[in-house]
Structures are given as structure tokens and as C-alpha cells.
Specification:
The complex is a heterotrimer.
Chain A lengths: L1 H11 L5 H29 L6 H18 L16 H27 L7 H22 L7 H6 L5 E7 L3 H27 L8 H27 L1 E6 H23 L1 H11 L1 H6 L4 H27 L9 H14 L4 H20 L6 H15 L14
Antiparallel strand pairs in A: 1-2
Chain B lengths: L3 H26 L2 H26 L8 H18 L7 H24 L7 H21 L1 E3 L5 E3 L4 E2 L7 H20 L1 H11 L1 H6 L4 H27 L1 E2 L6 H13 L5 H20 L9 E3 H23 L5 H26 L3 H5 L1 E3 H19 L12 H7 L6 H4 L1
Antiparallel strand pairs in B: 1-2, 3-4, 5-6
Chain C lengths: L1 H11 L5 E10 L2 E11 L4 E6 L5 H8 L7 E6 L2 E2 L5 H7 L1 E4 L11 H9 L7 H11 L1 H5 L10 H14 L4 E5 L7 H16 L3 E6 L2 H7 L2 E6 L2 E7 H6 L1 H7 L3
Parallel strand pairs in C: 3-8, 3-9, 6-7, 7-8
Antiparallel strand pairs in C: 1-2, 1-4, 4-5, 9-10
Classes of the chains: A mainly alpha, B mainly alpha, C alpha/beta.
Amino acid sequence: MAHAAGLSLLASLDFGTLPSQVVNGVLNGAIYALIALGYTMVYGVLRLINFAHGEVYMLGAYTALFVSWAYGFRPDVPPDQLPESTLLTLLVMMLASMAVCAGVGVVIERFAYRPMRNQARISSLITAIGVSLLLQYGGGLFLPQNPPPTMNERVNPYRQTLELTLVRAPQELTTAVENARQLAQRSEAAFQERLKLEKDRFNLSPEGERLRDAKFEAERQLREAESRRNTAQVTVRVGAGRLAILVASLALMFLLRQLVLFTPTGRAMRAVSQDFDSAALMGVNVDRIVTITFVIGSALAGAGAMMTATFLGTSISPYYGVLPGVKAFVAAVLGGIGNIPGAVLGGILMGVAETLVIWAGYSQFADAVAFVVLIVVLLFRPGGLLGSSAVEKV
Amino acid sequence: MHKAVPIRAASIVLGLLGCWGLDLLCRAFLRDSEQRLVVLAGLYVTLAVSLNLINGIAGQFSIGHAAFYQIGAYTAGYLAFFFYLQSPLQGVGWLLAMLALGMATAALAGLVVGLPSLRLRGDYLAIVTLGFGEIIRIVVQAIDLTTPAGEQVGGALGMSVEPRIRIVGLVWLFALAAIAVSRNLCKSSHGLALLSIREDEIASAAMGVQVAKMKVAAFMIGSAFAGGAGVLLAHSESFISPSMFPMDLSFIVLTMVVLRGSGAITGSVVAALTLFYVPEYLRGLKAADGTALTVTGATLVGWILAVIAAVVAVRWIAYQYRGPRKTRLAGYAATFFGALLVGRALGWAFSFFPALSGASYEVQKLRMVIFAASLIIIMLLRPEGVLGRHEFSWDWLARALRIRRPREAVG
Amino acid sequence: MTSRRFHDRVERDVPAMLEIRGLDVSYGAIRALREVDLDVNAGEIVAIVGSNGAGKSTLLRTISGLVRPRAGKIVFESRPIVGFKPHRIVAMGISHVPEGRRIFTDLTVWENLALAAQFRKPSTFDQDLETVCRWFPRIRERLKQSAGTLSGGEQQMLAIGRAIMARPKLLLLDEPSLGLAPNLVKEIFRILQDINRAGTTVCLVEQNAHMALEVAHRAYVLETGQVALSGPGRELLDDPRVQAAYLGG
């Protein structure tokens, strides 16, 4: 029974689109990775789950929205009077989002987390939850609710879909499709011709029934031929906006990697995340490093928020950050929290897993798959994929 | 030990009588909507006390408690939907049967979540419990049962639960049962084992505590009570939907547990009641003419600034000031009254700015903001929990009322 | 008491490099240090001995700013330093080698050393690295290695070398002999004496009282958070009370 269900599920999947789905999953994952970096970096230095990170992300999306309004992309402007959207516009929006998020992150750290640093960890966690709720509900009070999703339609210059055929189907399959299509067209034409002669459309003569069945058979063969060809050829279709997200995310992650591995500040960050006290004894200004960590993590979230709001067109609300935040945190844990490459890996895995679940037709479970993957991974590797399996006490 | 027996019996009788009395009082004096609040408060107390068992006493960091609540509620919901009409049990009998089944289902779920807790600790366990909570919510949301009549049940829109049974006394009796189980567990050798796991897992394992068994047991008992609360909720509200069990609910219950001192049951109860009633109070605030109470932007900004100043001042007195205790207390009092004064004054001063005096906000919409802000402020001022570790006991009550217990009579 | 007479002598000299008076430290309700008076003169090796939990590590952690005292003053080169952040205290010239070495195992040896010197301007990194490598030739061979791959003795050397990179005037060491083989302990103490002769003042905390008292110019005995005895190292080594309590004879 279950076996049969599994088979019918397999049969219903369109494997020709699988590569596209995987690529799109990676692109979605890039955003998760950007947000997850903030979680993982903060966790690395403070051992704190920064629940307010998702809300910082939300504020980044609002910042981008306000900047786009300032540029004249307001919802009340008729479409034909909109200004030209250039790379510079986008860049200014992104920098503004990053700056605002960095500022918010620093303020949160300074006034909510730093006073709690010597307290039990659960106290900082509750404070983090408090900050998260405060920003959500405060945002609900003071920020425009569900502004019309003008961002994507109006600002995004990258709206076309790119198509790339990686592997062409063998010639005979393509010819077979062509032949089948001609046959289908012919039998359709023949059937339509016959239909004109028929008195009753719903009660066909034997000749009419024969032509109708022939037409259905030809159409079935066409579908089969197409599916055979699609399975053999690999085409990737992605939105240009998503590709822009990937490029920008990769650039930011590369910058982060260089910073962490090769600058004195990055070295100090790694030292602080390994041993707070010892780093202080080496003359590292720990407070400054924590501030820098919040600046970088929040700025990355801001960049991610600006890009999702602009390129993907999700409508912005004060609760915009909740789900991406939780999922990105799951991604960070999946990769091994505190581990920067782990966050990227975890984010991308999550993006792919989610896209594949939607592709398989279970979109209602898409939000759950993140957690299922997480639980399964943690059962086998309690420290996450790339993390050490060090256990800790709260 | 035997001297405790009469006291225990008296406590049980007192508890039963108290709940019965509460029930009678509610029926006599409260409107239906007010009774509902009393029921919800009891459920929150149950949730807080049961999470306290997992989190405070056994030290297992769970932040997905709403899942078990939801499991209980939906167990009751689905079973009532399919079987209530054919069931020989009706009314309260059915409710009690559901209570048992809901607790069992939730305990089973607790077993499932408790098992990973053997391998995971700290934040990793926390995120697994959070994930479990989300999985349950999403799965429940995705399950759309279609009856032969084509009626939709469950899913995102929720479902109605028949019959509607709202018994204030029963809810509070259940809360008392949760409290009694927690308390007795704390005093028993099992409870000591749990506390030892919280303090140092490896050391307690070395002392012969069956760490794995105890941890899972704590998870199961805690979940069972949350599940029972869910059953009571479903039948009391007569309607359930996935949106009644959001992540925020888990957070709020967790907050109730943390705001008490570490592992304290009394604190959990008081915190649960406070955190439940304060937002409800704010929701109910009305202006003199019966319309929703509003504040102007000027007043709001004034109070925000005053509160921030007060928090800074109190923190300074608590952590920097090294003078005598009396001056310190005087400082707190001065800060409190000063803040009241400053808040008023600033509100008045800001009212001259048209941008601020023009904006107006409904107080009841502000309630979650106030809730979140007070959470942060409490953590900033008293991170160790508001009530500390003090526990309620008959001895304590006697001391407080200056009644000397006749020892001879008991001994 | 020895301690009283001893302080009198010190206070008549030039002011001590590090001067601690009436230091009280508590963790919650537990008082870790009470009324501790202690001096370290420039150029000395001062040892602080005592049993487990006597407050030795707390004393060092308070000097270097990781723990805030409840009362008392700490004066370094005639500047009070209570309440300063650890990194400022390092910048003033106090380096602290923490107990259990606590090197950064995820960083390379070179990065461990670079970290300690990177915030000083103008950079004297190359010179300092040369100095450290001269004291600890074994470090030079392992610069590119991850610090986690070092042996216990090498890790201790790295920990000390890392502290020296900050060019301290006063070097605080917490249990430098912990978990090391006897011949390594000897080597470390020999190097410490060399470092001291080269002009760095050393203050070390030890459970290995014999070794510490032998190299120390002066020493303090800490018992349950209080200074029980103090005096020249040699003198304490012969003191019957010290012998009974810490030297097993």
C-alpha cells in the first residue's frame, strides 16, 4: 500500500524540472545563509540565541521600502511616472538597510544584552525574546501595516527569467516530440473537421468517436514523448532577481570570510568566540569585538532583507522576520552553531530541502521540513554538520 | 514522616473544597466571559507549572511547550468529532476520559521529544523542542479532514469541539494537581535526582542517578499536564485552531517560568497569574465615556523616556552604589516617584509638539508592547527572577500569620 | 607577625610596582578574598602559594580586571586600576597567563602570538616574535601549526610567550606547572627566571609550593582568602608551618 503510494508519487513528479528546483533551492538558501551568519556569529561570541535577529531583518526590509519611497517608487505614483531603477538605487537601498540594521543591532546589544552578560544564560535568552516581541508589536503599532507590495513590481529591474539548457536531449527524442506534436495537431484538426458534421456534440457517431479516441491517443503520446525528452535534457530556469541575490550574497560571504580569517579584527573575533576571558587577557577589547560582531551580523541580515523585499516581492509586515528568522536559526544549528561555513552550508541545505518538498507537492509542509531535517541531523550529529559535538550547560 | 500525613490530607481536602468554592463563586457572580478568563488563568498556571517541571526542576531547556498543549487540545477535538455522538460517555464523563487520553497522548509526544534530550543539551535541545512545536502546528494546519457530508474539519481555520464544557473548579483542580505532583516530586528522592541532574549531570550519573530515565520521565510528566490543559481548553472554548498555539505562547509560558526564581513552583504560579492578567487588564481598559482608552504620542514618549531613566537609575543603585541599605531603599523609592513625576512632566512638555500630541494610540493595542517592554525591564532589574526561590508552605503561612504550630498535637 | 614587619620595610622603600590594599572579593555570598594586602616590587619574582580554593586565582583575576572587587584598592605604577577593563590593564603592562593555559586551539600558533601584539601602535610585532622565539625555540618550529596540536608543555610555553608578546612590565602566571612532567616544570621555571632577569617582574600562583618558593624572591601564603604568611621565599621554605601544610614534611 505504502509502496504503491510511493510509486505513484514518483510517477507524478516532473524530474525534468529537478535541476531548476535544486538551483532555485540554492538561491533561496543564500538568503537563509545570510541571516544564519548573524545568528551564528552572535552565538559564537556570546553563546546567546539572538531571537531579535529576525526582527532586525524585518527592520531592514522596512528601511529598504522607505528608501525606495524616498526615491519616488511610492505606491501612489502611477506606473508610467515611476523613475528609472538603476543599480545605484539598489545599492543605496542595500547600504541604507545594512546601516540601519547594524545600528539597531548595536543598540540592542548595548542596552539589552550587555547588562545581562554576567547573568545566567536563560536570563539573556528571555531578554532576547522580550526584544523580539517588543520590535514585532512595536512595529505593529508604528510601522505601516502590510504596505502594498510595490517593492518588487516597481523597483526590481531584474524581472526576466533566465533559461539555460545544460544537457540537450538526444536528437531522436527531440524528433520524436516533433513527430508526436505533428500527429497530435493532425488528429486534432481531423477531429474538429468531423465535429462540424456531427449533429450532437455530446453523442458522437462511431466515426466521430474513433477520431476523438485517436486524438486523445495522439495527445497522450505527445505528453509521453515530451516527458521522455524533458527527463533526458537538463534545463535550468531561474529568475534574474534570485540570481542577483546569489551573486550579492556570495560577494558578502566572501568579504566576511576574508575579514574573519585574515584581519586582526577577525582574529580577535575568533579568539573571543573561543575563550572570552582569555581573549580579554590578551588585550582584546571584548566589548568592541562584540559590537563589531553585531554590526556585521545585523548588516548581513539587512542586506538579505533588502534583497528579498526587492527581488522576491514578499509583502512586508512587522512579522516579516519571524519565520525567516527561525528558519535561519535552524540553518545555523544545522551547520553547527558558531561555525561560519556551517551557517552557509546549513542555509543552502535548508533552501534546497524546502524547495524540493514544494516540488514534490507538499507545499503545506514546506515550513516544517526545516525542523524535520534539523531533528534528524541533530540525532546523528548532535553538534551540527560542521560543528564540534561539544555539549554545553545552560 | 507520619506527621505529614494529616497535613497532606488536610491540604487535599482544602484543595477540593477551594476548587468547589471557586466554582460556586464563579457561577454565582461572574459573567460567562469572566469565567472564561478564570479558566484560562488556571490553564496558564498548569502550563507554567508543568514547564517548570521540565525546565526549572530537571533543567531541560524546552521552548516548545505549546506543542503539548496543542496535542492535548487536538486529541480531544478529533476524538470528539468522530466518536462523541456514538459514545456511551456523555458530558463530564467524556471530558474526564478525554483528559486521560489527552494526557496520555501528550506524554507519548513528551517521550518522543524527551529521547533526543538524552543526546542533546542546552541550546541544541531548545531548538529541537522549538522545532517540534512548529512541526506539530504545521502538521495540524495541513490536516484537513473531510467528512462524508463534505464538511471541512481542522486545517488552518480550526474546528469546533463538541460538547462545550466549562467547569472552573475542574480546571483549577487540575492546576492544583500539577502543583501537587511537582511539589511532591521535588520533595521525593526522584525530585532530588532531577535537581542533581540540573546542577551537574555527570556528577549525578556518577552518584548512581538514572539520568536518562529521570530526564525522559520529567519530560513526559510535564507534557502530560500540558496535554491535559489542552483538553480542558478545547472543551471550554469549544473551538480550537492552530493559531491558538503560536510560538509566542511557548515563549510566554517560558517567561512565566523564568520570572520566578530557579525551579520555584510558587513563583511559577504567581508569575503565570500576573503575566496572564496584566495584558487582560490592559485589554479591558476603557475611558470614562466607554470608548477605548487612548494615549497621545506625547504622553507615550514621555512615559517611555521616564521608564528608561528609571531603569538606568535603579540599575545604578543596585550595581554601582555602595552605600548603606537604607539609602539604597530610599533611592529606589525616590526613583519610583521621580519617574512618575518626570513622566507626567515630559508628557506635558511634549504636548507642545503637534507631531506628538496629534498621534493617538489605543491602550489595548499597546498591551503586547507593554508586555514585551516589562519583560526586558524585569530581566534588566532582577535577572535572578522576581520571587527568588521562596516556596509557599503551610509553615511559611503559619509564620507569616504568627500562628505557632502546636507541635505536641502533631508529634 | 612576619607580615606586619615585612610591610613596614616595603613601605619605607620606593613605592611598589603593584600595591594591593584591603582587597575584598566575593562571588555572591561566598567571600573569596578578604582584606588582602600585597606588594610586588619592580624586578621581583613573587610567589603566591596556598591550597585549592584559597583564592589565589581570584587574586590574579581581580588584578587583571576579570573580576571586580567589592572593596579595596589595586595600584599599579601609582595609578589605581580597579574598575578598568582587562584590555586597558594589559595595555598598561600587566599580562596574565590564565590557569589551564587557555590558548586559542582553533587559531594557529602564529595567530595566538599575533593576537596579543596586534593592538599596540607602533607595531613591534617582528621584534617581539623574535624575543618569544628566543625564549622558546620550540615555538618557532610550530608557528604555522594549529595551537590545538601542541603538547601540554608547548601549550604552556605558547601561553607564556603569548603574554610576553604584549611586552608586560608585570607578568602574572596562574599555575604554570599544572599538568606538566617534572622536567618540563623545571624548564619552565628556568625560563621564567631568565625572563625575570631580562627585566620583567613576575608574580606567580602555584600549588607546587616547593618549586615556587625556590625561585621566588618573596612569597605570600594564602589561606581561605586571607594572607596567612609572607616573607622571602627561602625563609618560607624553611618555615615549619609552611613545611607542614604545603611541602608534606
